[in-house]
Amino acid sequence: AQSVTQPDIHITVSEGASLELRCNYSYGATPYLFWYVQSPGQGLQLLLKYFSGDTLVQGIKGFEAEFKRSQSSFNLRKPSVHWSDAAEYFCASRGNFNKFYFGSGTKLNVKP
Amino acid sequence: DAGITQSPRHKVTETGTPVTLRCHQTENHRYMYWYRQDPGHGLRLIHYSYGVKDTDKGEVSDGYSVSRSKTEDFLLTLESATSSQTSVYFCAISDIQVRHLEAFFGQGTRLTVV
């Protein structure tokens, strides 16, 4: 069965430090992969997406993600975190029958 | 931003009563989805639609039904609400063109069953 795993439930980083959020997927074919961000009480906003081609994709707000087929991973990175990045982040894949599968989310806390 | 409107945004209802949540889109997207969000579970698919009157179950469909009589509207009904259905419900839309392959989300409906 198709699934998405985010191993880290909570992560705390200092403002200005680098960030990497992990995501692993299970899917036979090359999946369509996404990262979303959710601020409290809000809906989900797309940060970036991967369909094919260049395995390093750039998104909004200075985020990037790298698709690694050999590791079934699609990790999200940012070189310097800002306090406004504190939110919950979801990795997702689109697969069979055009359904979307989401990880359980990673809550990011940013220390001043 | 994609035109997706969920109504109501907040609702408190009593156990055993039926509840209907509405999702309305102005994007003419083919696919529509209902998810529920609960702490520690991320978003779980309840039902989805791949066209007018074409729907299918997701992973947590028990106790829920849906209808899609028009492209723009996707209704989620809790047939007899239970406390375990207290959650935040999100509607999403998508399509098959490359620029619309991601899911676009509504603002959510917070449902409390007392």
Describe the protein in words:
The complex is a heterodimer of chains A (112) and B (114). The mean pLDDT of chain A is 93. In chain A, 0% of the residues lie in helices and 53% in strands. Chain A has no helices and twelve strands. With 112 residues, chain A is mostly beta strands. In chain B, strand 4 and strand 5 form a beta hairpin. Chain B has 114 residues and is mainly β. Chain B contains no helices and eleven strands. The model of chain B has no long low-confidence stretch (mean pLDDT 94). At the A-B interface, strand 5, strand 6, strand 10 and strand 11 of A face strand 4, strand 5, strand 9 and strand 10 of B.
Furnish the topology, listing elements before pairings:
The complex is a heterodimer of chains A (112) and B (114).
Chain A: E1 3-5, E2 10-14, E3 19-21, E4 24-26, E5 32-38, E6 44-50, E7 56-58, E8 64-68, E9 73-78, E10 87-94, E11 100-102, E12 106-111
Parallel strand pairs in A: 2-12
Antiparallel strand pairs in A: 1-4, 3-9, 5-6, 5-10, 7-8, 8-9, 10-11, 10-12
Chain B: E1 4-7, E2 10-13, E3 19-25, E4 31-38, E5 42-51, E6 54-57, E7 64-70, E8 73-78, E9 87-94, E10 104-105, E11 109-113
Parallel strand pairs in B: 2-11
Antiparallel strand pairs in B: 1-3, 3-8, 4-5, 4-9, 5-6, 7-8, 9-10, 9-11
Task: For this entry, give a set of tags.
heterodimer; A: 112 residues; mainly beta; six-stranded mixed β-sheet; four-stranded antiparallel β-sheet; 12 strands; B: 114 residues; seven-stranded mixed β-sheet; 0% helix
Question: What's the quick description here?
Answer:
The complex is a heterodimer of chains A (112) and B (114). Chain A is an all-beta fold and 112 residues long.
Pattern of helices and strands of chain A: EEEEEEEEEEEE
Radius of gyration of chain B: 13 Å
Rg of chain A (C-alpha, Å): 13 Å
Characterize the largest beta sheet of chain B: strand count, sense, and whether it forms a barrel.
7 strands, mixed
Helix content of chain A: under 10%
Helical fraction of chain B = under 10%
Structural class of chain A: mainly beta
**Elements of chain B, N to C (H/E):** EEEEEEEEEEE
Structural class by secondary-structure content of chain B = mainly beta
Overall morphology of chain A: globular
Q: Count helical runs of chain B.
A: 0
Catalogue the unreliable spans of chain B.
none
Number of separate strands of chain A: 12
